[in-house]
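Format is sequence with structure; example below:
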Amino acid sequence: MTDLITEDFVELHLGAGDRHAVTRQLAERLFTGGRVTDLDGFLADVRTREEQMPTGLPGGIGIPHAKSAHVVVPTLGFGRSADGVDFGADDGPARLIFLIAAPEGGDTEHLKMLAALARKLMNQEFKDALLSAPDAATVAGIVNREVVPS
């Protein structure tokens, strides 16, 4: 099985910018890693989803996501922002951003991934571990261990 996230899909120092710029930064990693076949096509799908409803969650979380014909396998990108990025949550900007990329036909996998991630994000220890992780490999290990449905 392909890992949901690898250290190549983790950016611990997201640059400043709005949610679209930050999403592009993470999507570029998925594109470079061969998980997304058409960067602009995938970003258009993510933007369409964002326009339906903001993807910010309480507690400093952003979860931009899309099912897309341009995604090869279910993949998760992760970014950390010191300043936070506005994803439309009522309580302010997101410091932890998860980009969920799901293949167009992968309905149940996409929902399982979202549900597992949402459950873990209610756990403060999980969020603290991601906020304090020293490197990308640590983040990938935490997420693969805690979020991937077994």
Remarks:
- The CA atoms of residues 68 and 104 lie 5 Å apart.
- The domain at 7-144 is CATH 3.40.930.10 (Mannitol-specific EII; Chain A).
